[in-house]
């Protein structure tokens, strides 16, 4: 038991180190949230237009796409650890460019490079934790990444609302250095070592991560699972033509689409603008800080609930509740923009958008915004895991770009009420989809999850035939045994009858 506790301690310490790096990712993604109001009010050192500011806000997503694509090559060639550490390098490059930026295109470059780094880190980190963590705490450790990512967003919004553009940018220099140092001491996963044929290294990694002296059974089980999962190629054709992956593909695309189109990222990026349009008597800096704080607190709640309540109930409840909340916010803006009702400044109704955005950020962070990164890493086998998550992140990055860049266009076309009702429709759709399609992976080993999703397809046809043959032999053996037992009973009864007659 003491050895097991030591293993768990190692897992928690590794989680802390990688989660510290997630702060850098959160800062880079949400840097634009406090900066966009400064660009609009000409408080920044660079003069850019509103159109250019919208590009600054949205270009992190294309960079994320490229980073996710690069991660599929890095993670299987150099390992999970190398990919996580290496993602600090482009983050440092982007931060250096930001220090000398004098034109809008230089900000574009910074956002693209930051997005590239975040794409690598966020893709690989969830694979890393799924492979190193015990099944009882796998969800908790994975959510810790998102939790510290949210803390990074809270940090940059809180500080960025009170310091100048130049001061904030100079403060960011320390983050990629901290990322690199914190992750330098983490181990490689046993799965990668086994995949590369490095059995001794895998055994040492298992010893560190799980604290067991007798690693033979665990090691053999891991070797068997990795061998079974890697017997098929990890190619694009295999992923999209293999029947055993189809359910997993449908699940992750459905969850990813509804997560993005429910508007969590655009709402957070344009939260300041939404509060200004609501005419609520709330200081913008206070509103932005409260949104960052609620993401931080919601991340703590999510890390507790994910392994207590389970993935599937969290998905369903948070999607449905978010949809209802966004409908109410849309109704407020409908009466304001279409009906033309001017709500009095003293009326508490003016706080409906603030409360609605506050609740939607809370709910999405507790539920689907966190789980959309965990579930894909749990439901794909190792041969296509990095490839599947890479293509999913490419898809998600493109959709995020369209959602954030299209926010202003949709607002001009339909008004804010149309934007919120559009997001609400996808949130309700996400709840319905999760009810019918999402699996429950809480407390299950990766092997158990794959068997549940793939059924008989988890085994090769030859193995199924062999297992079927074994089953037939066993059934025949049982039948013959029963027949022999029945015959023996009859003989014994005849002997008793003969003795009685005598």
UniProtKB/TrEMBL annotation:
The gene is LOC114253276. SUPFAM superfamilies: MFS general substrate transporter. The keyword Isomerase does not apply. GO terms for molecular function: transmembrane transporter activity. Coiled coil: none annotated. Keywords: Cell membrane, Membrane, Sugar transport, Transmembrane, Transmembrane helix, Transport. It is a multi-pass membrane protein. The keyword Membrane applies. Gene3D superfamilies: MFS general substrate transporter like domains. This is Facilitated trehalose transporter Tret1-like isoform X2. It comes from Bombyx mandarina.
């Amino acid at each position: 038991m003491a050895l097991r506790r030591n293993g768990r301690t190692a897992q928690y310490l590794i989680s802390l180190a990688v989660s510290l790096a997630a702060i850098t990712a959160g800062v880079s993604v949400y840097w634009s949230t406090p900066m966009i109001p400064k660009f609009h009010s000409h408080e920044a050192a660079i003069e850019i237009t509103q159109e250019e500011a919208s590009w600054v806000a949205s270009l992190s997503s294309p960079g994320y796409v490229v980073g996710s694509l690069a991660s599929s090559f890095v993670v299987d060639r150099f390992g999970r650890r190398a990919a996580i550490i290496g993602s600090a390098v482009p983050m440092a490059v982007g931060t250096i460019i930001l220090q000398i930026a004098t034109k809008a295109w230089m900000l574009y470059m910074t956002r693209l490079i930051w997005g590239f780094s975040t794409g690598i880190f966020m893709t690989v980190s969830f694979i890393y934790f799924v492979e190193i963590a015990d099944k009882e705490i796998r969800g908790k450790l994975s959510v810790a990444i998102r939790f510290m990512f949210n803390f990074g967003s809270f940090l940059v919004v809180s500080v960025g609302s009170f310091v100048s553009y130049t001061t904030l940018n100079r403060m960011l220099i320390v983050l990629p250095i901290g990322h690199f140092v914190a992750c330098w001491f983490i181990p490689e996963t046993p799965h990668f070592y086994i995949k590369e044929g490095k059995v001794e290294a895998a055994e040492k990694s298992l010893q560190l991560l799980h604290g067991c002296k007798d690693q033979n059974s665990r090691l053999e089980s891991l070797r068997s699972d990795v061998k079974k999962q890697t017997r098929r190629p990890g190619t694009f054709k295999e992923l999209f033509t293999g029947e055993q992956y189809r359910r997993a593909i449908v699940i992750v695309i459905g969850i990813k689409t509804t997560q993005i189109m429910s508007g969590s990222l655009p709402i957070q990026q344009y939260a300041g603008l939404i509060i200004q349009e609501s005419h609520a008597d709330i200081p913008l800096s206070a509103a932005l800080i409260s949104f960052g704080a609620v993401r931080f607190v919601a991340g703590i709640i999510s890390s507790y609930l994910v392994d207590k309540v389970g993935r599937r109930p969290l998905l369903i409840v948070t999607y449905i509740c978010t949809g209802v909340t966004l409908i109410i916010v849309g109704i407020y803006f409908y009466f304001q923009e279409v009906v033309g009702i001017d709500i009095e400044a003293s009326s508490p109704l003016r706080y409906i958008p603030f409360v609605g955005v506050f609740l939607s950020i809370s709910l999405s962070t507790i539920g689907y915004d966190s789980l959309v990164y965990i579930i894909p890493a749990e439901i794909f086998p190792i041969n296509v895991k990095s490839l599947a998550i890479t293509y999913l992140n490419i898809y998600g990055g493109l959709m995020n770009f369209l959602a954030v860049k299209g926010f202003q266009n949709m607002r001009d076309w339909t008004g804010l009420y149309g934007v919120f009702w559009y997001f609400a429709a996808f949130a309700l759709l996400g709840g319905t989809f999760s009810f019918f399609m999402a699996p429950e992976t809480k407390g299950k080993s990766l092997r158990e999850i794959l068997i549940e999703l793939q059924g008989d397809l988890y085994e090769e046809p030859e193995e199924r035939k062999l297992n079927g043959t074994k089953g037939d032999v066993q059934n025949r053996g049982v039948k013959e045994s029963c027949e022999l037992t029945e015959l023996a009973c009859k003989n014994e009864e005849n002997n008793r009858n003969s003795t009685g007659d005598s």
